[in-house]
Design brief:
The structure is a homotetramer. The first copy, chain A, is of the alpha/beta class. The first copy, chain A, is built from six helices and 13 strands. In chain A, the strands form four sheets. In chain A, strands 5-2-6-7-1-8 form a six-stranded parallel β-sheet, sandwiched between helices. A three-stranded antiparallel β-sheet of chain A has the order 12-11-13. In chain A, strands 3-4 form a two-stranded antiparallel sheet.
């Protein structure tokens, strides 16, 4: 039985590496796969790039209004597995169609994406995945304090943000993201000096 | 490190049995626990009852406007673990406070609840838990077809409902719930006769 | 695809409750199941009993030389799921046949048992399950110190044992078992007074 | 609380990529790590290499008689996390010491290795890890038939082996390994022609 899996994590948890490794495993066994990505994410355009230095061209950029079920029926029926990178940017109706693709077309769908935004709330796509996915798998990453990181904090010019648009790509000047554990996230919001210092050192390692 | 865990499942996945077993394990080792429940759930009132026939009095019924952090500081600081049954009925701010209780007071919090309602959408409490919990653990149950069940369908007088209030306790006359796999849920919505027959047999076994 | 699952845990992790709840879930949906148990375990004879007070008659006591594949072909082909309680006492060849039952007869097999003995070594049955099971699922329990328990310690007349037969049922006079975390297990072996005191209090709560 | 984790999988499940990604995540946060490898594995010598093309020098090759506890106390006390690649080749006493390192020195230990050999039996190191690890995490890979692969089959000059030494590095001429699901592994042993053909195509793709 094929199903829909959501590999979720904070920033820098190795989501793209996980996707690329799994796609590699299947292709090595002569099994066809396709890699999709919502168009909203302009980072790297048609390429998905892992911080480890490996990359791959996506097979299709999915528009906000595009129907995955139709797309797959027309182009990817012979695939054993479909991958969606940056899946938090999917529209809810697209997540529903990926669930249909798994259960009706019997094609395995692996979605990789962020669980929550910089204010700890889900993206529309990730909420629908958390509701519908047959399996939820966490990809772990680490807080500068050494604990498991859960949350993503946004910084603009060294300052943690507590409001703003949900989507803001980190290639904008001065914008950075950092994954934090629940405790450091809370401490940073309350401007605890020790936590802020740890964060600065982690975000801007070359500065004094 | 204490953390916040969400044990989620469909109807009849053994959530209450899981809670009762875990609480038993701790008390057997002389460790204090407390069991809370949102007041909205009137089934059994102050009692939580497992279908296997075991039950337990809750320690506290949590009002919609009540602050868990305050409550725990005043009453349950010596507890090793807190349990919340029917956690889908928590208010989002209460989930946030349970996360604080775990990370600031270092008391483990185990929330047991439904992932989604009868229309496959999260309850406000379960969405906040899916966003914030340090660990998401699925409790499995089974569809009448034999597959793993993910979704909950609501029936009134033998008819599957596709609209209605999110909350409707199954002690109302004629109201029943049944956990279904993604495929049977979809088939039932489309009134596939074979699926409907399987469901009727499962819901109303004594009828011809 | 049916498969072989090993639910492993230390003593008092709720293995039997888990088995009974899952069997209940299936029977409630009119799906047939069977519960087996290796004959070596004489505790309760044909009954499996959970510490929560629920129990069930086993369908078959499996002899040391009996072939599960043959047994299932002759008696349980219409079952959707088979359960084995105290699965650590299975013979390795029997575990191999349960794997065949899952993959060749397409009947789901859930084995519940101890991971390791009182000296931290696997039983022949649990080692074969750890090697062959399609899914390994831990059932957690707790150490008197409050940490997750991993190991099982044997006590005879209040004294922790560091040698002895692998199998010794705890209904023998003076024999008790206690699940401990890695640290307390090691401390107890080294006769750390604080740990021994905690253990005594947990094992013999009514004594001064 | 630090603990000992065993990431197990069949051949080509991405174990080394997982290790390299996790080590990268920590170093990016300025946290120290060390990568160890049992000396018996001569593939790549001091380098661990992922099939995706990324690699890293190991910090230490562990001899069969070397004591990890001593080694870590003398060299790696400031590390936040230790990694062991090819952990199936550890000696059982070394696994026990890695458990001590986690619980006594509070350094997280992540072991990556094969669960079983080409005859479905554990290596001494992997059996001890399956017995002692605080967490067992599976890394999945795929069978040429499209199912999840569990077992590793050894081939010499196109022929599946049913006996031989447990360790035989696949750089020996004519030796190959292939990960198979339980069903294909069994079928291949029984020389089912369809399965053998699928395997040949997967192992030697360029041949007619």
């Amino acid at each position: 039985m094929a199903n829909l899996v959501f590999y979720y994590g904070a920033m820098n948890s190795g989501k793209t590496t996980g996707l690329l490794q799994d796609a590699y495993n299947l292709e090595e066994r002569n099994l066809k796969v396709a890699v999709l990505k919502p168009e909203i994410d302009t980072k790297g355009e048609r390429k998905i790039v892992s911080r480890l230095g490996i990359s791959r061209e996506v097979d299709h950029l999915l528009k906000k209004t595009e129907h995955p079920l139709q797309l797959v029926k027309e182009n990817y029926l012979e695939c054993k597995r479909l991958y969606v990178d940056e899946a938090q940017f999917l529209e809810p109706f697209q997540v529903e169609e990926f669930s249909d693709i798994a259960h009706r077309l019997q094609i395995q769908v692996y979605c990789y994406g962020l669980r929550t935004d910089f204010l700890t709330h889900g993206f529309p796509g990730s909420i629908r995945l958390l509701e519908l996915a047959d399996r939820l798998e966490e990809l772990e990453t680490i807080c500068p304090c050494g604990e498991k990181a859960r949350f993503v904090a946004r910084f603009i010019n060294h300052k943690m943000q507590t409001e703003g648009n949900q989507v803001l790509i980190d290639q904008k000047e001065g914008v950075s993201y950092l994954s934090l554990c629940a405790k450091c996230y809370q401490n940073a919001k309350e401007e605890d000096p020790k936590t802020l210092k740890l964060i600065q050192k982690s975000l801007y390692p070359t500065q004094k």
